[in-house]
Design brief:
This protein has about 140 residues and is an alpha+beta fold. It has a domain at about 25-30 and about 40-130: SH3 type barrels (Roll). The chain has one helix and seven strands. The chain has one helix spanning about 115-130; strands at about 25-30, 45-50, 60-65, 75-80, 90, 95-100, 105. Strands 1, 2, 3, 4, 5, 6 and 7 form a seven-stranded antiparallel beta sheet that branches. The N and C termini lie far apart (about 45 Å).
Length: about 140
């Protein structure tokens, strides 16, 4: 991929994964080092929520956290499966658009979030987003 680079453009980085990410897949994502709280930072698992992704295009993800969230948090969904043996919560109000070059795959095959968990994550994401305004004539 030949992309122009200059002093005011970030670098293009070759992806470490070999296939385009697919919806419901879970990857390690290397978030930016210069994050400012409450932004996502460090390397953490993410759930791919966009579809028709490419290896070189943007990818929409929901990050996860191992920090326990209580049931009163409407934006955190406790996953029914553990990620590498650790309980995690999907943070549905922390959507991020990232490059697939930030992804690394887990040992073995790429985890696929169960449909029930994914549907719950999407429902919370949609609830967090604003609703369209009704335009009256």
């Amino acid at each position: 991929m030949a992309e122009q680079q200059g002093p005011d453009r970030p670098p293009w980085v070759r992806p470490r994964i070999t296939a385009a990410p697919k919806i419901r897949q879970v990857y390690w994502c290397e978030f930016w080092a210069d994050a400012r709280l409450p932004e996502m930072w460090k390397t953490r698992p993410v759930i791919v929520v966009s579809y028709k992704n490419t290896l070189h295009g943007p990818c929409l993800v929901v990050p996860t956290s191992t920090e326990p969230h209580d049931d009163a948090d409407p934006w955190a969904h406790k996953l029914s499966v553990q990620i590498e043996g650790v309980q995690s919560w999907a943070l549905c109000n922390m959507l991020a658009t990232v490059s697939p070059s930030r992804f690394t795959q887990f040992r073995g095959k790429i985890p696929l979030l169960p449909e029930a968990d994914f549907n719950d994550v999407l429902a919370r994401v949609i609830k967090w987003l604003p609703k369209p305004f009704v335009v009256e004539n």
